[in-house]
Specification:
Layout lengths: L4 H10 L1 E4 L2 E5 L10 H8 L5 H26 L3 E7 L5 H8 L6 E8 L2 H12 L6 E4 L2 E2 L5 H5 L10 E5 L9 H9 L7 E7 L15 H14 L6 E8 L2 E8 L3 E5 L2 E5 L4 E7 L4 H11 E8 L5 E8 L17
Parallel strand pairs: 2-13, 3-4, 3-7, 4-5, 4-6, 7-8
Antiparallel strand pairs: 1-2, 8-15, 9-10, 10-13, 11-12, 14-15
């Protein structure tokens, strides 16, 4: 079976944890979810999965339609760089642009690791034929290179950045490290708009919805990329280590060769391919206020999803550093 060297490299780099005779390999990094067109399309199939469509897509779209003008007023600039950081095919960004005031002018910069998403989002924004969009330039990079790009987009006319970080992206990372990285090349007055779900009742419930076959249809391409056959692994989900974990059971002993090395997988080992942290609204706001001077909390009417509009610290503090991760589990 074909193997993906990027995934194998990360797996070797991270190694495994051992408990009794079982090894657990953790490659729960969402940048791997869209490495190939097959993976990208697998993710987009979630749009047809009712729990995800209802809680994430539909509610986020409603919030964007309802609050775009409020966000722009909070931002305070009529000309700016609109950075679309790693979300899908541009459906939500299109709605954001549609609901901008008529006198706004933007330069649009979609940033993603998936060429499929980039091409789709650019085509969708172009189809608007909007005079609000004066320039479009995509960047095919991952989040780790975001700061290098965001700092070079400014010019005398377009000095400020507004970044869209939608689709629960932050929930798949250690939130302190991610927010710290995002803020590094932001200037005073820059804004990040975060879209994320939040908890109302118990934190870890409804595990069965994450075991739906639609997730295996998507993530099986990661396991194929590691060199496994479909019948050598079994998809599952659990709540562990203070987070939701999506993973595969290894069903056979298997050796995979990579750059002169041999990687040994044992039957009953686990490979974690996805993780999501669940927060209550006060927790999300507390994290954001650690890194931003102003945070506007815009919840939906149902009370399960929100937009967090975060404005950069008025005085940059290069020595601030990422704060210790707070474990709310």
């Amino acid at each position: 079976m074909p193997k993906d060297n990027k995934i194998l490299k990360e797996l070797v780099k991270r190694g495994y944890t051992k408990k009794k005779n079982q090894h657990t390999w953790d490659i729960s990094d969402s940048r791997f979810w869209y490495l190939t067109p097959e993976l990208s399309k697998g993710f987009l199939n979630l749009a047809n999965y009712k729990p995800y469509k209802k809680v994430v897509i539909d509610r986020e779209l409603l919030l964007i339609k309802r609050h775009t003008q409020k966000i722009v007023k909070f931002f305070g600039h009529k000309k700016f760089n609109l950075i679309d950081l790693g979300w899908g095919k541009g459906v939500k960004t299109r709605e954001f642009i549609r609901h901008l005031p008529k006198d706004i002018r933007i330069r649009y910069y979609p940033i993603d690791i998936s060429s499929y998403f980039i091409e789709t989002s650019v085509a969708r924004i172009n189809s608007l034929n909007s005079n609000k969009v004066v320039y479009i330039k995509p960047f095919l990079v991952d989040f780790e290179e975001f700061n290098e790009i965001s700092s070079i987009l400014r010019n005398n006319e377009y000095q400020h950045n507004l970044t869209l970080l939608l689709g629960e992206t932050i929930s798949h990372y250690q939130i302190n490290e991610f927010l710290f990285q995002i803020t590094q090349d932001m200037l005073p007055g820059d804004v990040v708009v975060i879209g994320n779900g939040y908890r109302k009742g118990k934190r870890f419930v409804h595990i069965e919805k994450y075991k739906d076959p639609i997730f295996n249809d998507w993530f099986i391409y990661l396991m194929r990329g590691l060199g496994f056959k479909d019948n050598e692994v079994r998809y599952d989900a659990r709540f562990a280590n203070g987070r939701l974990e999506l993973f595969y059971h290894i069903l056979v002993d298997k050796t995979i060769k990579y750059k002169g090395k041999q990687i040994y997988f044992r039957k009953n080992d686990k490979v974690i391919i996805g993780a999501q942290y669940k927060y209550y609204p006060e927790e999300l706001q507390k994290f954001c206020k650690m890194y931003f001077s102003e945070v506007l909390f815009l919840p939906d009417k149902v009370g399960e999803y929100c937009l967090l509009v975060c404005r950069k610290w008025s005085r940059p503090d290069s020595n601030r550093g990422p704060l210790p991760h707070l474990d709310f589990s």
